[in-house]
TrEMBL record:
This is Damage-control phosphatase ARMT1-like metal-binding domain-containing protein. It comes from Asanoa hainanensis. GO terms for biological process: DNA damage response. It holds the Pfam family ARMT1-like_dom. InterPro entries: ARMT-1-like_metal-bd_sf, ARMT1, ARMT1-like_metal-bd. GO terms for molecular function: metal ion binding; phosphatase activity. Belongs to the damage-control phosphatase family. Sugar phosphate phosphatase III subfamily. The keyword Manganese applies. It catalyses: beta-D-fructose 1-phosphate + H2O = D-fructose + phosphate; beta-D-fructose 6-phosphate = dihydroxyacetone + D-glyceraldehyde 3-phosphate. The lineage of its organism: Bacteria, Bacillati, Actinomycetota, Actinomycetes, Micromonosporales. Its cofactor is Mn(2+). Keywords: Hydrolase, Manganese, Metal-binding. Residues 22-339 form the Damage-control phosphatase ARMT1-like metal-binding domain.
Length: 363
């Protein structure tokens, strides 16, 4: 039996987690500060959060925060410690929760309930190139080729060239789609499908195309989309983002598609801590599609995995067939063969975080 590897920490030199906090977060804070006409109080709070996360210790939420008790329960001795010593998954999740606090998202006033990331998501949906990129939807076959196309679109849905790439032969995908278990997804159908959604914008549009195709072809009799209950990780989809994507596609939400949420989707925990009510919900489906990089990290554990670790050994057993659809945007990856890993390490040292490579992995 393989030993469970250590959790990834924020401050480990040379690792991607440190790059996120020290290189990406400063730019993110600038974008958030400029997204709305915030006052000096909000902009100052954002700057203070950034400074704290780079050089300071983790501060708790204010006592009147609506989820203070939740974060107190999720603490593992991290409050009061340097951010650099905290596990990446927990720290990153808490950083985004603190952004909401900084911009007064929960506080009575003009910014209460205002999504700080909404302008960024709206700009993506306003891109006229989306009309071209989603024109392929009109000619999707109902055969297995159609399933391959909608699954690949869901994996690489945030790419601007997806319409052209879907027309290329399978061989052209061999160095980008590192593992493809779409055939195992096909074996799990027909039935009820649950999609644990990742991003809004063009990606949720691709997810809706997938859901509609499954329903229109009889592969699914109903589809449930699980989205975030609040703004999270910049582009993560909320219920309002589903509405916006439907409007952009020009197709109302199919009544056979349900949109649900749960507090756990914004918790700093991996799927081993999934509460019983949510686990029971997921087990009510024939198959669960787990979308995106963050959900992948939560599914297998945000740890320093050997990439040749079998996916079934690392992924949480949810009691239902699970298919992960993900592009690689963090160091966590499992289920690959040694030859593929050696080739990628030699040809593209940053393959784990570049977003160029995708995985369709079934458990």
């Amino acid at each position: 039996m393989r030993d469970t590897p250590e959790e990834l920490l924020v401050g480990t030199p040379g690792r991607y987690a440190r790059e996120v906090f020290h290189d990406r977060h400063p730019t993110l804070i600038e974008r958030v500060a400029a997204a709305h006409p915030y006052g000096e109080a909000q902009r100052s709070a954002l700057r203070a959060l950034l400074d704290e996360s780079l050089t300071g210790e983790v501060r708790g939420l204010p006592g009147d925060a609506p989820d203070w008790a939740d974060w107190d329960a999720w603490d593992r001795g991290y409050f009061g410690r340097p951010w650099a010593e905290v596990p990446f998954l927990w720290a990153e999740s808490y950083f985004y929760r603190r952004i909401l606090d900084a911009v007064d998202y929960f506080r009575a006033g003009p910014w209460q309930g205002v999504d700080p990331f909404a302008p960024m998501k709206a700009a993506e949906l306003a891109d006229p190139a989306l009309d071209r990129d989603f024109a392929w939807v009109l000619s999707l076959p109902s055969s297995a080729d159609g399933l391959d196309a909608v699954v690949r679109a869901s994996v690489f849905g945030n790419r601007a060239d997806i319409s052209f790439r879907l027309q290329e032969p399978d061989a052209a995908w061999s160095d980008e789609l590192l593992l493809d278990d779409t055939s195992r997804l096909a074996l799990a159908l027909p039935g009820s499908v649950c999609v644990v959604v990742d991003n809004g914008g063009r990606e949720i549009m691709a997810d809706l195309v997938l859901a509609n195709w499954l329903l229109d072809t009889g592969r699914a009799d109903r589809v449930t989309l699980h989205v975030k209950p609040m703004p999270y990780y910049v582009s993560d989809a909320t219920a309002s983002d589903v509405d916006d994507a439907c409007a952009r596609l020009g197709r109302p939400l199919d009544p056979r598609i349900a949109v649900r949420t749960h507090w756990f989707w914004c918790a700093p925990l991996d799927f081993r801590a999934m509460p019983a009510d949510l686990a029971d919900d997921l087990r009510g489906h024939r198959v669960v599609l787990v979308k995106g990089d963050l959900n992948y990290r939560r599914l297998v554990g945000d740890r320093d995995w050997d990439p040749t670790t079998p996916f079934a050994a690392a992924a949480v057993d949810l009691g239902v067939p699970v298919v992960a659809l993900r592009t690689c945007k963090s160091e966590v990856v499992v289920g690959l063969d040694g030859a593929t890993v050696a080739w990628l390490d030699a040809a593209e040292p940053r393959w784990r975080v570049s977003g160029r490579h995708g995985l369709v992995q079934a458990r």
